[in-house]
UniProtKB/TrEMBL annotation:
It comes from Solirubrobacter pauli. Residues 2-267 form the Glutamine amidotransferase type-2 domain. Keywords: Glutamine amidotransferase, Transferase. The keyword Transferase applies. SUPFAM superfamilies: N-terminal nucleophile aminohydrolases (Ntn hydrolases). This is Glutamine amidotransferase. CDD domains: YafJ. The keyword GTP-binding does not apply. One of its GO terms (molecular function) is transferase activity. InterPro entries: EgtC-like, Gamma-glu_amide_hydrolase, GATase_2_dom, Ntn_hydrolases_N. PANTHER family: GLUTAMINE AMIDOTRANSFERASE DUG3-RELATED (PTHR43187). It holds the Pfam family GATase_4.
Length: 282
């Protein structure tokens, strides 16, 4: 379906994750090991918060496969950011077009998704009609992922990020099941407002797509004291990935449990149960 990475921590050149890891997203775009498809070549996107800026995220999106974009390496080498998300797409049926490439953006928020809304073509109209009218013009593509993002915004994401997503997923499940869809949603997702990074692993059938979080920097340094590159990690640095960027570093990657949400932030991170809830009213 798709693969994505997210980074939170000290300002970092984006190329460190996109190009300078053994199993980076560049490699995963051709040779994914834990996804539904090995090839994820239906476009890609990069969203980041500038190291010195106004808090508004920037994006670069393309319909090219990530391995075949001639501008990406130069951009990734020049851009330093304390928080960024990158995504490679394998379409589940909607067109390959720039507006369908992740991350999706609204104000300070970025959103990436791996998975699908089952039988989206059957329930799409009902889902879209539930989007808050003042938000509707922000939908520029045709994907189930963007629809899910705007449902979460409708149900309060900006004030209560995880609650907004829980209500959006609860609504999708209710609508899907009303139309006879047994397992309406499958997802891992990442979202951020530039202050925190949120990640969720959930599916209606309890067999979610893979998602991993790196352990804290102090643990990584203790595990590999002779690795000069890892010695630069700070205690705040975290990476969330669809699949590990280097499988030759045992102990660095921890699988995110089923039905779980992460809040990665300055200080103590949080791991919480993710429980969809049908909104009281639409």
């Amino acid at each position: 379906m798709c693969r994505w990475n997210a980074y939170f921590g000290q300002p970092l050149a984006i190329e460190e994750l996109l190009f300078r890891t053994k199993h980076s997203l560049i490699d995963q775009s051709l040779h994914a090991r834990q996804g539904v498809e090995a090839t994820n070549g239906d476009g890609f996107g990069l969203g980041w918060y500038p190291e010195h800026g106004d808090g508004v995220p920037r994006r670069y999106r393309s319909v090219n496969p990530m391995w075949n974009d001639p501008n990406l390496r130069d951009l990734a080498a020049e851009i330093r950011s304390p928080l960024f998300l990158a995504h490679i797409r394998a379409t589940t049926g909607t067109p390959v077009q720039q507006t369908n490439s992740h991350p999706f953006k609204h104000g300070r928020w970025l959103f990436v998704h791996n998975g699908l809304i089952e039988d989206f073509h059957v329930i799409r109209r009902e889902l879209l009609l539930a989007v808050e009218p003042s938000l509707f013009d922000g939908i520029h593509g045709s994907t189930d992922s963007e629809t899910l993002f705007y449902l979460a915004l409708t149900f309060g994401l900006e004030d209560d990020p995880l609650g907004g997503v829980e209500r959006a997923v609860g609504f999708v499940e209710a609508v899907g099941r009303a139309h006879g869809v047994e397992h309406p949603i499958q997802m891992t997702l990442g979202l951020s407002d530039g202050e925190r990074l949120y990640a969720v692993r959930y599916s209606s059938e309890g067999r979610s797509r893979t998602l991993y979080e790196s352990v804290d920097g102090a643990t990584v340094r203790a595990l590999y004291p002779d690795n000069a590159r890892l010695s630069h990690l700070s205690d705040e640095d975290r990476v969330v990935v669809s699949e590990p960027l280097n499988e030759e570093l045992p102990g660095v990657w921890v699988e995110v449990p089923e039905a779980t949400a992460l809040i990665i932030q300055r200080g103590v991170d949080e791991q919480l149960p993710f429980t969809p809830a049908v909104p009281a009213a639409v």
